[in-house]
Specification:
By secondary structure, this protein is an alpha/beta fold. The protein has helices at residues 6-13, 19-27, 35-49, 53-65, 76-89, 99-108, 120-128; strands at 2-4, 31-34, 69-72, 114-117, 132-135. The protein has one domain (2-135): Rossmann fold (3-Layer(aba) Sandwich), CATH 3.40.50. It is globular, with a radius of gyration of 14 Å.
Length: 144
């Protein structure tokens, strides 16, 4: 399974440099995003890229109905796992992880999964948790 972080979805929806790579991942049909990361991606896509909420909803709905993307829900157990990741790895100046990032690493991903991200702290923590990383380019082309 390939777990997309919020940026991967933002890159795809907002036509950022990583969009073609994310599109290839989605075409493979084995992608998942946590509901928490979906919320973050929708927020950023609408606020930063100026896309309408209904437009973003239509694209995500098409992906989910087409089997290219699955949205995983957050429950009590995933909340505890996300909290554990945050407590274990967050450091204000060296490893800033959003709560969405913690859900991605602690709750959405399982051993053997790959996390698609351009975020260096997410990539570092994922690797420390023995998850494989698909390093996507950020908006400047750098990969973690």
């Amino acid at each position: 399974m390939i777990v997309l972080d919020a940026y991967a979805l933002v890159a795809f929806l907002g036509a950022e440099p990583a969009a073609p790579e994310v599109e290839r991942l989605l075409r493979g049909g084995a992608c998942v995003v946590s509901a928490v990361n979906l919320a973050e991606a929708v927020d950023v896509t609408c606020r930063v890229h100026g896309l309408a909420l209904d437009e973003v909803r239509d694209v995500v709905r098409t992906l989910t109905l087409g089997g290219q993307l699955r949205v995983s829900s957050a429950d009590e157990a995933s909340g505890w796992r996300a909290a554990d990741v945050r407590q274990s790895h967050y450091a204000k100046k060296t490893c800033e992880l959003s709560l969405a990032d913690c859900f991605l690493i602690g709750a959405a991903a399982s051993p053997g999964d790959q996390i698609a991200t351009s975020d260096p702290p997410v990539a570092a923590v994922a690797r420390s948790e023995r998850l494989q990383v698909i390093a996507l380019p950020d908006s400047t082309g750098r990969r973690p």
